[in-house]
Structures are given as C-alpha cells and as structure tokens.
Amino acid sequence: MTIGTAPPPLRLRVVQDGPEAAATVLKRTGLSDLEVDPAVAARSAAVFDTPELRDLVSSVGLSPASAEEALSPEQFVERVVRLVRAAGDTALRLISERLDGAVPADLETSPAEIAAAYQQVDAQFVADLRLAADRIRRFHEHQRRPSWLDVDEGLGQIIRPLERVGIYAPLSTAAYPSSVLMAAIPARVAGVDEVMLSMPPRPDGRHQPEMVVAADIAGVDRLFKIGGAQAIAALAYGTESVPKVDKILGPGNIFVVLAKKRVFGDVDIDQLPGPTETLVVADDTAPADEVAADLLAQAEHDPLASAILITSSERLAAAVPSALAEQLGQLERAEIARESLERRGGIVVAASVERALALANEYAPEHLCLLVADAWSYLPAIKHAGGVFLGRYSPEAAGDYVAGPSHIMPTAATARFSSPLSVDDFLKITSVIALSASQLVELGPAAARLARAEGLTAHAAAVERRLH
Known about the structure:
By secondary structure, the chain is α/β, with parallel strands linked by helices. The chain folds into 4 domains: 14-29 and 275-403, Nitrogenase molybdenum iron protein domain (Rossmann fold), CATH 3.40.50; 31-100, no CATH class; 111-145 and 161-269, Nitrogenase molybdenum iron protein domain (Rossmann fold, 3-Layer(aba) Sandwich), CATH 3.40.50; 435-464, no CATH class. 43% of the residues lie in helices and 13% in strands. It contains 17 helices and 14 strands. The strands form 3 sheets. It has a 6-stranded parallel sheet, with helices on both faces. Strands 6-5-4-7-8 form a 5-stranded parallel sheet, with helices on both faces. Strands 2-3-14 form a 3-stranded antiparallel sheet, with no helix packed on it. Strand 9, helix 11 and strand 10 (306-311) form a beta-alpha-beta unit.
C-alpha cells in the first residue's frame, strides 16, 4: 500500500445463521488442510542437498531428493526425524544451518547469557512477568492431587510427576514469553524434575532476551537454541547435547506439529495445536468497539487465526465491521489482522443468545467470550470450549497473560474431548493392587471364570493355584 493512501475496505463476511454460515464462517479446517507457503515447499528438498546430508539421507534408508523436488510437509518431517535420531547433534547442526543460515557455537544457552538477558529488558517487564507467574502458579496449585492407598481394600493409586519434559516455543512474527510461563509453571507445580525449553535462535545466535527471562522466571532448567522439526526430534530421542524427554509440549508451525505427531508414542505430547481461535457470543448490550477489540486481539496473532462473532443483535452485526475497520488503522500488525479477519473471520447473526450458544458448542472454540447480559446465567449451557470468558471485564487478552489458567488450550474443535494444559498433563498414575488372601478367595473364582470365558486358561490357572 502506498504511503498516504487509504487502506482498502475490510471485506468481512456477515451472514445469517444457516447453511451459508456453516459453509463459510463456521467451517472448520483440519490439520491436513493447512496451507504451506509454496516458497517453503519448493525449498524443502533443497535443505538436504549437500554432500553431508545426502550421505546421511542414504545412511538411514531414504532415497535422495533432487534440489528441485518439493517434499510434502510429512516427507520433510520424516527425513528430519530419522536424521536426527540417527546422527544426533551432527544432523541438528547440518539441518539448522541449511534452514537458518547459521548455527550457534553452543546449542545450549549459558548461565551468563541468562544473566545478561535481564540487563536487556525493561524492569517493568520483569515485574509484570513475575506478577503473571505468581497468579499462574497459585491457580495451578489448586490442581495438585495426592496419591491414595486403601490398605483394607488393597487398592490405590500412586500419582507421580514426569521426570523430564520438553517445551517448544516458536519464533515467528512475534515471540510469546507468556506462553513459556503458561507451560513451564504447571510443570513445576506438578513436581517435574527437569523442564527443558527449545526455541529457534535469532540470526546472531542468541535467544530473544524476553524469552530467556520468562524461561528463568518460570523455572526452566535448560534452554536450547534449536527450532523446527529438528528440535522436536532432538527432544523425543535425545542427542549428545539434548536429553531425551518424556513429553513434548508447545505450539509451532505445520512442520513442528507434524513432528510432534510423528514422535508420539515414543514420547507423549500435549496436543496437535492448530491456529488459534476466538468465538465471541454477544447480544445487544455489548459495545461494538469492545467486541471489535476482542476480535482484533485474536486476529493479530496469525493470518490463519479465526476471530468470529455470533450475535443475536442485527444492530451489533452492522456496527462491528465499522469498528473493526477503524481500529485496524491503529494496529502495528494491521495487515496480519486484516488477512485473518477476511480469510478466517466473520459474523453470524443468530435468532437468540441460546441459538448462538448452540452454534458455539458445535464449533467448540479454543476461546469462548460471552459479552451478554447476565453472562453467568449462560455458563451451564456451554458444553465445549477450551476457556470461557464471562462478561466485558474478562477479555481473553487478560486470560492470555495474568488471570491464572494456562492459555494453552485445545484448538480445531478438540475442546469436544480435551482440556487446557494443567498440572494433570505432567502427572502419571500407577495403580496399586494388594489383595489379601480372603479377598482373593472372594474374588478369584469370578476372575478365573472370566479368564476361561476369554480362552485364557493360564490366567485362570494362575488364580486357581492360589485358591487351594
């Protein structure tokens, strides 16, 4: 856009509830439908087009690809995972050099670099991070669960934290120190022994100081300068520099998400996060400028983010597009927000708040904001949402930073069956069975009969030998 010219009008879809809304504004996009930048796809095979990497590719049984051949994201990730698993730090360095142009001398951030980061950020920023960290910690302390043992019944559960977890933090058009707090602090509250963080370095080979400070405040033990699918592979299988973890958490681009999918089963993962999303349900009492502000707060994340309004008010549906257009001109990330709104956003007009909530339940959003009169009264009607933000004084933006619950929430309709990140994500449960002789006499015959019904006679015999 030429300096001094007016921005183009905002092309926002405003539709009535019905088939058109379902096919446009409320249509879901799956992981397999996400678009990859053609330029990125075109250079995917070229990443491996060096003598050293060609040799590594052959050594793990993969066919070489010509520099002109575009690999699918899945093929690219498969190569990266297998190379890192086979060659460790050597593969990490070779792949990172091809992708980023340079590799830091040390893959791990030193204590001196962490100390220096505090000198590079504003003191108020540090104070705000500490405030957020305290609230996140206090919220998650309510989620702690003790082990339990019933000696008389001979049953119980031992609840233990995972020993080592790896958190991934992306470096894209923005950095998110808040996400480091939201992932690492629940792990610390759960009692995880070691918390690792991996994220891409800047071109100078260092991490963004705000991210380093956040990691330190959150209690991260070790911080690595590795990004992309290669970081996920390193955390999953371990290298000379990076220890193998038990679980990997955190968002990333399509290659990071597919790498998490690829290593699942060898390690646990939190989720396969899609683009972030907010759904606002509003009635005629909602101020148009506040609704627009909430939608823009979501849209500025990413062109693939979804910011949607479902409203029972024709007046509000007519007023919000103008408010959006006016506020767009005041944003640093206006072009990103505009693209998000035009591609993935929109307004749906519903007959009532009740109908709007029914549509919201079908959509199962990551964030559901209720800007309606007496918002608390509608809470029982909400079945599927990662987080619910009630009333005008609980904007999602507050939840993203200082409210307390983790802002790492299920996306892509997975709120129908999954939950926001919590202390439970860092725990594992061991069942305890310690029956007495009298209990086995009471229960054993049924166990033996059930075993024989399944054709497992050795099972039956293992019980019956103890009954005589």
